[in-house]
Amino acid sequence: MAKSIKLRAKSKDGVATVKALISHPMETGLRKDKKTGKIVPAEFIQEVVCESAGKTVLTAQWGGAISKNPFISFKFSGAKSGDTIKISWVDNKGNSDSLDSSIK
Amino acid sequence: MNQNRRVMLKGSLAAGVVGAAVGAGLLTPKAVLAAWSKEAFEAKEVDAAMKGNFGSTDAAASDKIKLKAPDIAENGAVVPITVTSQIDGTTHMSILVSGNATPLTSTYELGQTTEAYISTRVKMGKTSDVIAVVKADGKLYSTKKEVKVTIGGCGG
Q1: CATH number for the domain whose boundaries are A5-102
Q2: What does the domain layout of chain B look like in residue ranges?
Q3: For the domain B38-151, what is the CATH code?
Q4: How far apart are the first and last CA of chain A?
Q5: Distance separating alpha carbons of residues B130 and B4, to the nearest angstrom
Q6: CB contact, 8 Å: B143 with chain A?
């Protein structure tokens, strides 16, 4: 199930710019359902890990205050076109997903 | 009668599968998420969140951290934030929103080749300061910017 992640990684002058969009509800656990008045249970991504060519380039820990359908962008050097890139996430309910791609 | 029996069987089977999935799910995050600090992310105050996350609240104000955020956020549910650090040896970056129920939004551990640049989108409950905290060579640096929120992004 790698449908939740959209990833684009481009390398320019040895620096790769990674942009990722994850579709996820990111419920804080504080919001009330307008119809039922009950609190919507928390469901948010806790950890996002990005690896490239076997090395971890970014480990992100998130709380519920990251927007719904999170977007993240970062850069790392030493990247070549064609290097593998893998991004994965785990949420507080134990759901997870990952996507393998390559740097353009 | 037979019909009911079928339904019952299906129901219990489905429940069993869900149960197993939850059981498996509960085991994985503990193993993977050793670093996720419940104390920091559930802290209600900026200082407590800082302490839970970095173990210290002592952050020096620095103009070498560039925090890019809108002056006015029309929709508090989606506030784009970009943090760039020009401090050598930056290893960790965090984004806090002082007015949120739980101020710590996210924290990033950079790899050796990763540049000190993070762009993401956060939720803001009300007008307050966005604080970027950077850890470089074991020291903490921070910068902040006030963002006016016209429609809150938390609750509703």
Answers
A1: 2.60.40.10
A2: 1-34, 38-151
A3: 2.60.40.2470
A4: 23
A5: 57
A6: no
